[in-house]
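Justification of resources, computational component.

The compute hours requested in this renewal are based largely on the per-chain cost of generating structure records like the one below. Each record pairs the submitted sequence with a full structure-token output. That output is archived, and it is also reused by downstream analysis tasks.
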Amino acid sequence: MVDLGSFNSLAPILRDDPYPVYAVLREQSPIFWTDAEQAWVLLRHREVSEAFTNPALLTLDLGQYVNDVSRALGDNPVELLRLLEMALFFRNPPAHGPLRSLVARLLALRSQASCAAAVEQIARRLITPLARDGGMDLMRDFADPLPPLFMGWLYGISDAEARWLATTLAGVPIILNRGCSIRDYRSANLRLEEAHAFLRAQIAARRRTPAEDGLSLLVTRNDEAEAPFDDDRLAALASFVFMAGFETTSALIGNGLWLLLSHPDQCERVAADRALIPGAVDESLRLEPPIQQVRRRAMTDQTIAGCEIREGQHLILMIAAANRDPRAYPDPDRFLPGRAGQPVHSFGGGLHHCLGAWVARMEAEIAMGAVLDGPRPRVSSDKPDWRPLHNQRRMNSLSVQV
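The structure output for this chain reads:
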């Protein structure tokens, strides 16, 4: 039995392998209040599904929270606050609509076939050292650089600029980790000052000389809008989309490759039948979702699974627990590419379903195919090197040998 009132999803014991605890909690009480986090915790697939599409549950405004904390301490992290103002998953209607429309147009700039061709070319180039050297770090040298290089192609910036931008922005997502400090906000703001200065210069250049690329499209569509963003906010939006385009996708690719290579029987099955690759990516999203949990706030009194939720109370939607609910997925802890079952929640749902989900899936599928096309590598360690984060599931490294 687990003491529900003192349950804390930030507990260090949950960092490496939270799933046994989630299984116990899910059977003990599928929804419960925890004093430790002052929130309701939802663990079953059914309730999490309904919560994602419940219009009376709104996402939290992290920007307002960071602003309040920073001002109380005499800080004013301008660039960080601009980023959070442009971050789709922290915005509710009516601000959410115009942002989502602009991002959707950016992602529709190129055909899916041309995007896949670009990812294929990048993946083949990055995987070359595996056969040549007999081994590589699939996280550091493959999963990490692939999505930023694709986003660079989409934006119309060079590979060197895309790598620099990814490195500069890499420390920013720590602000999404509940429990981070004012020092983290300051560090993120410094990184964003550099990134946004670069992007403002790129935006100004595209306005002078438009090109056939994503940044030019952002500038054109923004300038045609009834209430266009200024260049400071447009740079922040470009920064958010770039970051969203590589951070969780890199995690998905790494997690997927670890699961695939750690199950040799399933790996050979997928290698022999490439039609199973999309199913292998789905299983990776289900078993090791890059985003483990999200928060919502109740706008009205309501009842969920027999529990009375009051207006203003917070809810934690435990995606990682819902994805392993045996009521939705028989034998839920097994890696079974091609399994039938309920859709996973790893890209969110409802109003905040990830616009770039198709891009992330496509990149992960192509990355798996590129690895399977070469000599079969084996994972050097049976214990993943997880980053010390709680709501994100991402490895530092994934060393393999042929």
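The domain at 4-401 is CATH 1.10.630.10 (Cytochrome p450). DSSP finds 16 helices and twelve strands in the chain.
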